[in-house]
Amino acid sequence: MTDAVCTSCPYCGVGCGVLATTTGEVRGDPDHPANFGRLCSKGAALGETIGLEERLLHPEVGSRRASWDAALDLVAARFDEAIRTHGPDSVAFYVSGQLLTEDYYVANKLMKGFIGSANIDTNSRLCMASSVAGHKRAFGADTVPGTYEDIELADLVVLAGSNLAWCHPVLFQRLDEARKARPEMKLVVIDPRRSASAEGADLHLAIRPDGDAALWNALLAEIARRGALDEGYLRRHVQGFDDALAAARASDPAASGLSAEEIAAFCNMWIGTRRVVTLYSQGVNQSAHGTDKVNAIINCHLATGRIGRPGMGPFSVTGQHNAMGGREVGGLANMLACHLDIENGAHRDAVRNFWQSPTICTRPGLKAVDLFRACTEGKIRALWVICTNPAVSLPRADAVARAIAAVPFTVVSDITRTDTTALADVLLPALAWGEKSGTVTNSERRISRMRAFLPAPGEARADWRILSDVAARMGWGKAFSYDGPADIFREHAALSGLAGALGRDFDISALARISDGEYEAMKPFCWPRPASGQSPLTAGRFFAEGGFYHPDGQARMLAITPPAPRPAAPGRFHLNTGRIRDQWHTMTRTGRSPRLGQHLAEPFVEMHPQDATALSLEPGDVVRLSAGESTAALRVLITDRVRPGEIFAPMHWSGRTATAGRINPLVPGPTDPVSGQPALKHGTARLERLEAAWFGFAAAATPLAPPPEATYAYGAVIRTPTGWSLECAGREIPQDWIATARALLGMSGNASGEASADMPAGTASIAEDPARGLVRVAFHDDAERLQGLFFAAPHPVRLARGFAAGQIGRRIAAAQILAGRAPADLPDPGRTVCACFNVGLNTICAAIRAGATDAAALGRATAAGTNCGACKPELETLIANARLRAAAE
Ligand SMILES: Nc1nc2c(c(=O)[nH]1)N[C@H]1C(S)=C(S)[C@@H](COP(=O)(O)OP(=O)(O)OC[C@H]3O[C@@H](n4cnc5c(=O)[nH]c(N)nc54)[C@H](O)[C@@H]3O)O[C@H]1N2
Ligand SMILES: Nc1nc2c(c(=O)[nH]1)N[C@H]1C(S)=C(S)[C@@H](COP(=O)(O)OP(=O)(O)OC[C@H]3O[C@@H](n4cnc5c(=O)[nH]c(N)nc54)[C@H](O)[C@@H]3O)O[C@H]1N2
Ligand code: SF4
Ligand SMILES: [Mo]
């Protein structure tokens, strides 16, 4: 690739380096130390997400296009007015781990140093807050001790509440390659679900939800019983051991929901292997006991001295590409910039002095869940939401949407329309990935450059600039007169030097004087980088020789009392939520990629076969979930990957992609008392079959929208390689099927195809089988190309969707397409398994039948699994199933 720009991926915390061109070609950067050239399916599809359709290109005030001056004047005036009348705590920012460090720094400086409130919180509260709190309790600072290399050097990797194969796929590939090179290396997965990460594991512990602390306490007690403690490390570097052990001994291992044999197998592996990395994520953090879970894990590493050495340590992997950067700048309501503390007077003075600011917040601000509650209570008079979609992603999402609507003045900065922008008084168009510049920090503390390779579209502006322009209008122009991200970076680096001098871990003051040119050319590096050159690290890691950040330099072990098991009430299921491989959060970007839409195309709920049988559910049924006042309509996916009594639903679908597919209205999300992080993985819900009069499938070349809830019980839209497709369930049999099809497909015209307005018309052909209740409608244009398709049935439509949608735009006779199956000359590739190369299930099964006996052979035959490798667990399962079938025959 010539003229490629070296940048980084805007999705997950692995922080892969990407080479990108103005034409949207992307590939992994072979020189980036996070990925060495690899990309996952989402990274590889970035080029499909940079188009300008649906982008916000102009500011809007009250849904009308406005000039930047008018919009910014209004924002400054309304924030000023609220602060003057109701005080600084009457305004709030809700920001995001997907902001660049420079944007984030400016937002935090404006709120904490100039407005003088700490009411700035971030979606990282839903994500990393328990890890941050756990780190601070144990280490005295929010420090991640190790690096990615440790995962490769370990002899045992434990994934605790992490579906690494889908959520940090390039790290999982690195782990997978290390295991192939050293087959003696072991993998244990602790997850109530048998996730894709668990498929090839040596041990999968299907723990009871929130059973984690009981398991780690059992391990700690066993470590002590077997004399496997590192007495020297404990004596020199750790406080609190006796109490932690007493609490561990007092807790009941059975509360983990695991058998004595499973616990013993885990203890044997963990205790018997010195090089252990315990990598954890949202199954640990997103819990009302999240911080305790984090400390229960860290306890075991401290007790054995397995921390900060090659191949050893607790490892909290970050979710968003700049979740770590947000922690550095103090984006959380209870932190100050550069890992300094709000509650510490010396820290506050240092920051205020450095900023030369008129004021500084003196106490922590509202944490995300409380912040939106304060909106409901009328305590927040002006709110600014930047780079996040809380109407979808917060627990009690319906109440949150009502809370945002109730705030007298709401500003939203985004790149596209979302469920949250629909609630804004002022809408500000931001620059997106490819257009913006700055830095991000990944899970191993590695700071990388994000660089622009596309021009700014329309009137969109960088988030740091929008924030600075508002600050200037509020009277603080001098402190926010940045001429670019390099300027902001230097200021942040200089402040970190003060933090370093105050004994904090985050210090990159060596870069405080870099030139614009050096910033431009900056290569990825891991912090700290103090100006003194005296690094606190040993071989690139923290804490091998102690050096913790509590005043006495010692770490703390915590006494952890696990929660008593709380089974769901009769008739209810434990509701677990999370991610799928090919979508990112609320789908505002990955939802634009046809390739990524093919893996799991609908909002679904996983349920155990035993529970499905009890409720007389069949594969493909649509179900209604309810909790309190809220409901969701999802496709049921019957699988023994989940435990009986527990269900799992993805967080991705919103009002823009589904009729009732948002799961978060049903998630109550009580918060962890230490971190304030909501328990997004632990709701309860009732579930029943959704009785619909008919089910439908439609496909078209033009954008489709989810149908309205008044007439449709279920609906979901997704991009396809030929356009869009839609699944739906109607409440009543319509009078006129062709009119229904036209409405769903957004096609104007009457039955004979005469156009009205400027929408595409189409000549309709209809085939009906009244005895079986089947209806099929096809629309062709004047050139006899298929424009739209609609299939309806009294049961979920049986149809090879990939094949049917694949005919859109082609010349195919009505009779042929209305037959609904792939004719012999057009093989149906089946559901997409490999999203990178768009390889379908049928193609893969054919290759297995033709003799492919392992994933590598399948890759050679079909290319499946040869890019990001995230589908490899599924490929291996398919091969194993084929072997089992062959053995049975
Ligand atoms: N494809 C994709 N990748 C992503 C993202 C995305 O949206 N899509 N988002 C990114 C972000 S921001 C984040 S935070 C990360 C999240 O990455 P992960 O944390 O790996 O992902 P999740 O699917 O949220 O949850 C992980 C697992 O926790 C399990 N779990 C639920 N309850 C418990 C429990 O009580 N104990 C244990 N041990 N496990 C439990 C769930 O069954 C689930 O499999 O992913 C990042 N990467
Ligand atoms: N049930 C359930 N809920 C969850 C979770 C779960 O596991 N289960 N996980 C939680 C976690 S860990 C997370 S991190 C959150 C994520 O939740 P959100 O942050 O709400 O999700 P995103 O879709 O990533 O929202 C990012 C928004 O920023 C916009 N955007 C993209 N780039 C830019 C930019 O450069 N500037 C601006 N201004 N806007 C931009 C996007 O269009 C999008 O609307 O969800 C949380 N919610
Ligand atoms: S693993 Fe995938 S999503 Fe994460 S940074 Fe790398 S390419 Fe992006
Ligand atoms: Mo996250």
What does this structure look like?
The protein contains 28 helices and 34 strands. It has a 7-stranded mixed β-sheet with strand order 5-4-16-15-14-6-7, with helices on one face. β2 and β3 form a beta hairpin. α16 (368-376) crosses α18 (397-406) and α26 (841-849) packs across α28 (872-888). The structure holds ligand MGD (2 copies), iron/sulfur cluster and molybdenum atom (MO). Residues 9, 11-12, 14-16, 35, 39-40, 42-43, 168-170 line the site of iron/sulfur cluster.
Concise synopsis of the structure shown:
The protein is of the alpha/beta class.
List keywords for this structure.
single chain; 889 residues; alpha/beta; 28 helices; 31% helix; binds ligand MGD; binds iron/sulfur cluster; binds molybdenum atom
